[in-house]
Structures are given as structure tokens and as C-alpha cells.
Amino acid sequence: MTVIRKGDRVAIISGKDLGVQGRVLEVVRKKGRILVEGVNQVTRHEKVRMGRRGNQEGGITHKEAPVDISNVALVCPNDGPTRAGFRVEDATGAKIRVCRKCGTEL
Ligand SMILES: [Zn+2]
To answer: How many other β-carbons are positioned within 10 Å of the β-carbon of residue 32?
Structure first.
């Protein structure tokens, strides 16, 4: 099961955007896919139209497409892309997400 949440900083660990880091915009848990800022950008050609305030909308736009959740890893400030695990706080029983390598809270 993934531990990645919206707003996390992640790195791409396979595919054409290998090594690219970005913030998680959306997690589509059911489909096992994730939307990462600036990753897997696709170009869309939309019809140019007039917006409500008279500004132009459409034309060529860039938009992120979701990537498979298995292709991303959480980024640890010490180690870079890493595997994350959980530590249970003795006092409170709270689950804390940590880096498996150095134990830093993520
Ligand atoms: Zn670490």
C-alpha cells in the first residue's frame, strides 16, 4: 500500500521523467495513479475561445497526466528518493511516517 499523500514531495523513479521531483497534486487511490506537478506533461490543443472577462482561453496548453503510483518515491531531505515506513509513537500510539533509511519523519 502506498504512503504517498497529496502535497508530498516525490521523485519519479522510472519512465521518461526519471529523476524529476514535484509536489503531489492528486492521488487517485482507486486507480493507483498519482498526479505530480510538472511531471508527465501532455500538450493539449484546444479551441481558442473567449473567456468571461474577454480574455483568450484555450490554444496550446500543458497539463499533467497521472503516472503510476509505483513509479514515484517519497523524497527524504537527507537521502533523496526513498522508501517510507511507519513508526508507532510509544506514548500516543500515533503512526508516524518515516524514512526507512535514516528514520527522519516525512
Ligand atoms: Zn532518509
So the answer is: 12
Output the pLDDT for position 2: 67
Answer yes or no: is pLDDT of 97 > 90: yes
Interval between CA 62 and ligand 1 midpoint (Å): 33
The fraction of the chain above a pLDDT of 90, given in percent, is 72
Q: 9-99: what fold? A: SH3 type barrels. (2.30.30)
Ligand 1 centroid–CA 46 distance in Å is: 43
What is the 96 CA–ligand 1 centroid distance (Å)? Answer: 14
Please tell me whether residue 19 adopts helix, strand or coil conformation.
Answer: coil
